[in-house]
Amino acid sequence: MDKFLREENLKLYRRLLAETHDEERRRVLVQLIANLTREQSGRGET
């Protein structure tokens, strides 16, 4: 279940990142994506 939620959050954050032009919001989204990606690789998930 955690993996599913992480994947769905990544999809959402990437979509929002593609749509927004606000620099602060983009910075936050990039950080969220980085955190989820790091968490994923730390668990050995693909």
Could you explain how this protein is built, in words?
The protein has 46 residues and is an all-alpha fold. It has one domain. It contains 2 helices and no strands. The chain is elongated and about 30 Å long. The chain starts with a helix and ends with a helix. The mean pLDDT is 93.
Based on Cα principal axes, name the global outline: elongated
| Poorly predicted sequence stretches spanning 5 or more consecutive residues | none
Oligomer: single chain
Helical content stands at: over 70%
Number of strands: 0
Strand content: under 5%
Counting helices, strands and paired strands, the structural category is mainly alpha
| Total helical segments | 2
Q: Element order, helices and strands?
A: HH
Mean pLDDT: 93
For the record, give the distance between the C-alpha atoms at the N and C termini, rounded to a whole number. 15 Å
Summary of the model, kept short:
The chain has helices spanning 2-19, 23-42. It has 46 residues and is an all-alpha fold. It has one domain.
Index terms:
mainly alpha; single chain; 46 residues
